[in-house]
Specification:
Radius of gyration: 26 Å
Helix content: 40-55%
Structural class: alpha/beta
Largest sheet: 8 strands, parallel, barrel
Length: 304
């Protein structure tokens, strides 16, 4: 028996309305999901810097860098003494371009381990470097210094490790006192035979057990050691600073064309928001290669 027209119309209207609402709901969910993805993608941007003399600050700022990375011996404890440091600090205060971190904490002849270990001298230097880093408004001092931590041939490895841990435990309170974090840097075996991976770095960090003694992730050294990007995810909670350079000749991004996206994706996965510094020691042309390096990094970051 046929239903009255009014009843059919009402039923049809309800079905159509339900379909429209469902479609709107699905569309809204898709829009929210897309917006969320876009928002996450947009939020993943890293402060980029370059290791260089501070005289390059204005140039690097113009290239889109957020900061510069200097060296302890070049800026904080220069060979020319306290007067030179005072000039460096005055230049920093004048230019107002931040130094986020400092590399090369220790010279190679100041040993952290082995029969010639000199912890007292290291602690004096570290305390001064941390004090001055705070004066400069900097957040990190990198503890790489590969030549200072080479285990001498025939020296007991466990004893060497214990020496390094003991020193690190004494360095951490100095970092806490000055409010500057020490970032322990694993290095490739071409530079040292001790602490060559993120996992080995974290072993030391766990022994020290201080929020002011954390981990640096250097993608160049990871590449040299064939250390996979998933190690960044595994140890991400300890990573406070990052370095990067191409694998073959430690050139800046864009020279050989290395693809860093797997490692950048890992940094994105751990929601890393710290600095990423191009750390190279030899340039054919600093100005052009550093500029291209920043551009290449910005592009690869946008693609992950």
């Amino acid at each position: 028996m046929d239903q009255p027209f009014e009843s059919q119309s009402r039923r049809t209207f309800l079905k159509q309305s339900a379909g429209i609402c469902a479609g709107l709901s699905l569309g809204a969910e898709s829009l929210v999901r897309a917006a969320s993805q876009d928002d996450f993608g947009a939020k993943f941007s890293l402060p980029l810097g370059v290791y260089a003399s501070y005289e390059k600050a204005a140039l690097l700022k113009n290239y889109g860098c957020s900061y510069i990375e200097e060296s302890v011996g070049g800026f904080l404890i220069p060979k020319n003494g306290d007067m030179q440091y005072a000039k460096n600090l005055q230049q920093l205060q004048s230019d107002q371009f931040p130094i986020r971190s400092y590399v090369i904490l220790l010279p190679g002849d100041l040993k952290t381990l082995g029969p010639d270990a000199n912890h007292e001298a290291i602690l004096q230097r570290t305390d001064l470097a941390l004090k001055r880093a705070k004066e400069c408004g900097s957040k990190y001092i990198v503890f790489g210094s590969g030549a200072s931590r080479v285990i001498p041939e025939g020296f007991d490895r466990n004893k060497a490790k214990a020496q390094h841990i003991e020193l690190s435990k004494r360095m951490a309170p100095l970092a806490e006192k000055h409010g500057v974090t020490i970032a322990l840097e694993p290095l490739n075996r071409g530079e040292t035979n001790f602490i060559n991976s993120l996992s080995e770095g974290v072993e030391i960090i766990n022994e020290v057990n201080s929020p002011s003694f954390q981990l640096l992730c250097d993608i160049y050294h990871m590449l040299k050691e064939d250390e996979q990007a998933d190690q960044i995810v595994k140890f991400g909670k300890h990573i406070v600073h990052c370095h990067i350079a191409e694998k073959q000749n430690r050139t800046p991004p864009g020279v050989a064309g290395d693809d860093f996206r797997p490692y950048l994706s890992a940094l994105k996965k751990i929601k890393y928001k710290g600095g990423l510094s191009i750390e190279c020691f030899v340039y054919q042309d600093f100005d052009s290669q550093s500029k291209k390096g920043i551009e290449v990094l910005q592009k690869q970051i946008s693609e992950v």
